[in-house]
Design goal:
heterodimer, A: mainly alpha, 2 domains, two-stranded antiparallel ribbon, 3% strand, B: mainly alpha, Sodium/glucose cotransporter, 20 helices, globular, Na/solute_symporter (chain B), membrane (chain B), transmembrane helix (chain B), acetate transmembrane transporter activity (chain B), Sodium:Solute_Symporter (chain B)
Chain lengths: 186, 530
Amino acid sequence: MQSSNERPRGAGGGRESTVGDRAARDRGPAETSASPAYDDPWYDALASGWAEPAGAAAPAPAVPPARAETGAEPRAAADVYLEVQRSAAFREVRGRYRRFVVPAVVAFFVWYVVYVVAATTAPGLMARPVTGAVNVAMVAGLGQFLTTFLLTWAYARHARLRRDRAALELRWDTQELARGVRGGAS
Amino acid sequence: MTGDHQTLALLLFSTFVAVTLAITTWASRSRQGSAEEFYAGGRLFSPMENGFAIAGDYMSAASFLGISGLIALYGYDGMLYSVGFLVAWLVVLFLVAELVRNCGRFTLADVVAARMRERPVRIAAGTSSVTVSVLYLVAQMVGAGSLVALLLGGTGEAAQAWTVIGVGALMVIYVSLGGMRATTWIQIVKAVLLLGGTVALTALVLVRFHGDFDRLLLTAAERSGHGEAFLVPGLKYGGDWIARADFISLGLALVLGTAGLPHILSRFYTVPTARAARRSVVWSIGLIGGFYLMTIVLGLGAAAVVGPDAVRESNAAGNTAVPLLALDLGGGADSTGGTVLFAVVAAVAFATILAVVAGVTLASSASVAHDLYASLRRRRAEPRSEVTVARVAAVGIGAVAIALGLLARDLNVAFLVGLAFAVAASANLPVLLYSLFWRGFTTRGAVWSVYGGLVPAVLLVLLSPVVSGSPQSLFPGVDFQYFPLQNPGIVSIPLGFAAGWLGTVTSAETPDEAKHAETEVRSLTGAGAV
């Protein structure tokens, strides 16, 4: 208990422990705070959750309010997703994804359209020789291949280094919260 | 083309059929007929396996024979196709692959229906998926028929008809017995064969020119009879403005259509996680990019070694350029090397068609059973019976594709593929992107965006010179041609996006915040993914 509660406090403030305690309570009355059930990897994943993967000191999400209500089970499950969507950790993952993908899509799409339009409307430009028999058209065509390979590599690297870990932790947290809601309502 | 070629090619092709049937039996033995197993092959393929399978699904005979033939005849203009087919994968990688893997279960409609009222959306997305698949299937069947005529010399109508029927029957067996697991392994085997053949031929071409790409270009330009113009765009699409607009339209359809092809989307469900889906796309981009780079060398090699005149003499559309190149590189028509290489290329081309046809049939039978049947029935079908429906649907779609393939025998294969891409880009891509990224998207918007892309795309084709009004069209006798372009993409793709927007802003329904949150969280984190 001690060790698993210390981590979130150090990382993002005291509110994570509320999430953790709630989850612990959802496990049922038998598992009190000192029980060995805290060795459960699921609990560990949850405790290290929120705000931490982003590395930001942003406020952790509040506990879903519908948790206290009884009966409205689908509503409660939906609230979990709204809750996660508003959390700083998720916004960080989404921001990282969008900050890479939006400029990259714009860039390669414009470059491709310019290439196709130039190929059909400006043959004079495309015929300009570069070296030997290789002309601008050939360089531009092979350039499309090259940029495609480069962007693929850059995207895969960006996702692996900047997104995967945070997304995976959010996945476990979200699933655990959703499970907690479902368990609590039944 | 002598009897030797035919016998050897038939022998190799029969071996391929035997091996793939063995795979099918192995894959279907002692497996439970669950939907998970039938549509997604158990979801446990590795990224590398799935990458090869995606490449196998994507590299059709139209690419292998068609693009290199176009390059051999028209030089640079053929290369524009390879670029479009490859760049399209960035759309798939950035916007579609991971998110679709996280949100959906088996089909495109799963992703959209998660946020909307399920029934109308499933019917719409299912209809457009089946339409795209059938168009794509017909293209492959027509290709198979003409390949037989071209490669085996059996120019008779009967030989073509029996090939179409035979290919159709085989694919129904693969799909209905083996499901996704067998189909995936067939794609992998085919991708390895195709890449192996292409690498060998490319190496032979480069050896012939002592690794000097410059000399290859110069020789090709010189032998083509066009000189410099051969290496510059414009030989095929440089005519009037209509021809140029047509090409831009095709270019748009190619780059946006791939992300809406149902048989490509369903491949992402065969791996366990979004991360694996991403890595399989990276694999496939590497394989597909390398393949298209090699087709450029093959096309130029065919122009330089065989010469456009000989290519055109054998087949006006250039489809036999690669087999002729193989014959020449192997040592000529009467040598053993030439015979073997020719037979290998012919067998690889058949294998290619067969595998692609199996992949598309599986995807469309999933759409019929999982989307259309499950929605049009009063109660949801049980998973077990849904698989039975899918097996029956595979037989039905096979029959439809065989019939249409026989009817459309004289249509141009590349055109049919371009049309399938245009419909996919107009009807499937807008609804997919809107539901993944637009918070305010509604059910009406989703339905409008599917039909708003699908109907104009099909209608514009019916009114285009492809169907009537010119000597090459399907019905040369009548003239109801009101749309000048062959490919509808430049008009129908914006219409699909506009219709989705219009349907959303005019609908009284308030978008469900919680459902949007669920889609967004699930798509980016993988929470709750199956």
